[in-house]
Design brief:
about 260 residues, alpha+beta, six-stranded mixed β-sheet, 6 strands, globular
Length: about 260
């Protein structure tokens, strides 16, 4: 199966070879277990200039089936036999802009988090026309303290907001608001912790596992974190709201 995966990825890379604007093609490592129900081949294409239009990309991937594309997210999806493939297109200028902003003492990732950097740091390089990815990896390994502090402060504010919303949703017995607030809280909570630890955030699939491995965590964090994630038939919403307040307070004390 490993051979099949490598052949599929190489065929995708070869198909994109005629596009001059492409600098680097990578595969996300650690997500190649075909027996995982979430499995897909996650290919990132880093390019300069204009993105090829959808129809031209459809032609490039004519060997695939069930082709579909997202204009909003700049992603193509298709099947190669039994292998689902996702190709995401990323402008190099965006990453260089973030690095320039960090050098000037500002931050451009407050709302989006650092998953884009996690992918760069942990991907396997399939092809590269320059040393850009090696250079950007060096740059993101040396981000200033101000970058992390700005990100931490932004996520702390967001976490505090969601804690308040969660409590209100419980009082009002608002099902949808409760779900939205719970998701927002746990996402912002973990983002704060990754910023405090100066580490990039993984995808949501691996978030719980990686969070619990962070070297700097509040006291009694694991137990509270696990309790918050329990199903509702095991713990009441009111109790979850209390746990969220405890978690938030413990994280504030760390920062």
């Amino acid at each position: 199966m490993k051979r099949q995966i490598n052949e599929a990825v190489q065929r995708v890379a070869d198909a994109l070879g005629s596009w001059d604007g492409i600098d680097t093609i990578t595969l996300m490592e650690g997500e190649e277990d075909v027996y995982d129900p979430y499995f897909f081949l996650s290919v990132d294409v880093y390019y300069r200039g204009a993105l090829l239009d959808i129809e031209k990309r459809r032609e490039l991937f004519s060997f695939g089936n069930a082709f579909e594309s997202s204009v909003v997210n700049r992603k193509d999806r298709f099947l190669m036999g039994d292998l689902p493939v996702r190709v995401e297109y990323k402008e190099i200028e965006r990453f260089e802009e973030i690095i320039r902003a960090d050098s000037s003492g500002t931050s451009l990732v407050r709302d989006n988090g650092t998953y884009m950097f996690y992918r760069l740091q942990n991907c396997r390089i399939i092809s590269s026309k320059s040393d850009w990815i090696q250079q950007i990896r060096e740059d993101i390994a040396q981000l200033r303290d101000g970058f992390w502090e700005s990100l931490r402060d932004s996520m702390l504010s967001r976490m505090e907001h969601y804690v308040s919303d969660l409590g209100a949703a419980v009082l009002q017995n608002d099902d949808l608001f409760y779900l939205v607030s719970s998701a927002g809280f746990i996402r912002s909570l973990t983002s704060v912790l990754f910023a405090i630890n100066r580490k990039f955030e993984p995808s949501a699939r691996f978030l719980a596992e990686h969070t619990l491995k962070l070297p700097i965590l509040p006291e009694a964090f694991r137990g509270r974190f696990d309790s918050f994630l329990r199903r509702e038939n095991e713990i009441t919403r009111a109790k979850k709201s209390e746990i969220a307040e405890l978690l938030a307070r413990s994280v504030f004390n760390l920062s």
